[in-house]
Amino acid sequence: MVVPPFKTSFDKVSWTERRLIDLFWEIRHFNDSNPYEQVVESHPSKPNHVVHKAKLTGEIPNSTINLAGEIIHGLRTALDNAVFDIAVASGVADPRNAAFPFAGTIDDMASALGRCKDIPSELHPLFCGFQPYYEGNDFLWGLNKLSNTDKHRILQPFGTGVLRNRASVAGIGGYWEMPDPHVWDSEKNEMVIITVGPGTQFNYEFDFHIYVAFGDIEGMAGRDAIGKLTGMGTTVYRVLRAIEAECRRQKIVP
Q1: pLDDT digit string (tens) for 19-49?
Q2: Taking phi first (over 0 means left), then psi (-120 to 50 degrees means alpha), and beta for anything else, what does residue 173 get?
Q3: What is the mean pLDDT of residues 155-184?
Q4: How many CB atoms lie within 10 A of CB 75?
Q5: Does the bond joining 35 to the residue before it have cis omega, within 30 degrees of 0?
Q6: What's the rounded Cα separation, in Å, for the pair 247 and 187?
Q7: What global pTM score does this model have?
Q8: What angle in degrees, to the nearest 10, is found between the helix axes of 138-147 and 62-89?
Q9: Which of 76, 134, 178, 240 has the most beta carbons within 10 angstroms of its beta carbon?
Q10: Is 201 in contact with 170 (CB distance < 8 Å)?
Q11: pLDDT number for residue 165
Q12: HSE-up of 12 (CA within 13 Å, CB side)?
């Protein structure tokens, strides 16, 4: 049975949509497990001072990391498969240069088109219009960046927190110091809430939340994983539809 052009690509996008739902629930389960604790530690350089922290106690499961990797790979492959289908439909029996032309920057786009030189050159302006490079289409550039990253670096937990209005300080001296805003330390997987001096009592309520984002990857660090992957999936689908429509217009595919 002959597979119609682009069917494999659209099937992959549909598959990633289902896996994205699975990823959502995996991350939700991780967040609901409250994988952190509030601790009090001695200040490393100020005697008799203590530091209140929110510290991560759990790790993102490998199943969650693997799911994210599968989604990224599926979307990336869907684009390559579409270019391959164009080359075959154009009469190239054994395409060797039929990959989606991702580029580092707009200046690299001309050379990146060499990756898909087995397709008709009339389609090159269409691919340039997708802007699959840095400071072009963020979703396409990010997808390519993530696909070239070790999957175990893809996801990372981040913490966000805010001190509620109900807080009071008492004691002799009354020294305390608090970051503004509170900043998550991704290397130590912790956040300093407040530093309190000797003889000071500080009562507070602190709202803290863990979310899963992309790790230390250029242009992607700290960005919500589900939101960005959803945008990438929608973008890939729109790119495939545009490719299909233009190929039909140029009668490359029926």
Answers
A1: 999 999 999 999 999 899 999 999 999 999 9
A2: left
A3: 77
A4: 26
A5: no
A6: 48
A7: 0.89
A8: 110
A9: 76
A10: yes
A11: 61
A12: 20
Contact 189, 53 (CB under 8 A): no
CB atoms within 10 A of CB 95: 18
Of 53, 67, 58, 55, the C-alpha closest to 22 is 67
* Residue whose entry in the numeric block shows the structure tokens 């898909």: 116
Can you give the length of the chain in residues?
254
In the structure encoding, which two tokens stand for residue 36, read together? 């952190």
For residues 190 and 118, what is the distance between their CA atoms, to the nearest angstrom? 50
Q: DSSP state, 122?
A: G
C-alpha dist (Å) from residue 10 to 52, 74, 77, 90, 206: 50, 10, 11, 20, 46
Residue type, 79: L
**One-letter amino acid for residue 221 of the chain:** A
C-alpha torsion 97→103→104→105, nearest 10: 140
CA 116 to chain centre: 26
The C-alpha atoms of residue 126 and residue 134 are separated, in whole angstroms, by 17
Q: Are 202 and 194 in contact (CB under 8 A)?
A: yes
Task: Say if CB 194 and CB 178 are below 8 A apart.
Answer: yes
Distance from C-alpha of 135 to C-alpha of 189, rounded to nearest angstrom: 30
Residue the block writes with tokens 């088109």: 113
Q: Which has the closest alpha carbon to 52: 166, 150, 197, 210?
A: 197
Residue 37 sits at φ, ψ, to 5 deg, of -145, 155
As beta bridge partners, residue 40 has: 52
